[in-house]
What does this fold into?
Amino acid sequence: MKKNAHRGSDFRDFLKDEGILEEVEERAMKKALALQLGKLLERNELTKAEMAARMKTSRAAVDRLLDASNSSLTLSTLGKAARALQHKIKIELVPA
It folds into this structure.
């Protein structure tokens, strides 16, 4: 099969060349996490105030947790959220 001469590098290569690949990946992970937490809230029919009470924190902290653009998330906060939703956290390191 002949390779397409008009095909360029992939988007990850572009982001890497621009020096922003890691930042974009981190933002994407936070957005995915915020979406997953939001879905779990809906599935469990929990309000943000109820979630905050379960986490023993403020509703503003829950808002920050669910804000995909807010990257200031600690493992402690994530752990509280997971426990409040009766879930565990799974984090793994993979080769770059």
Q: What stands out?
A: The mean pLDDT is 90. Residues 21-43 form the longest helix (23 residues).
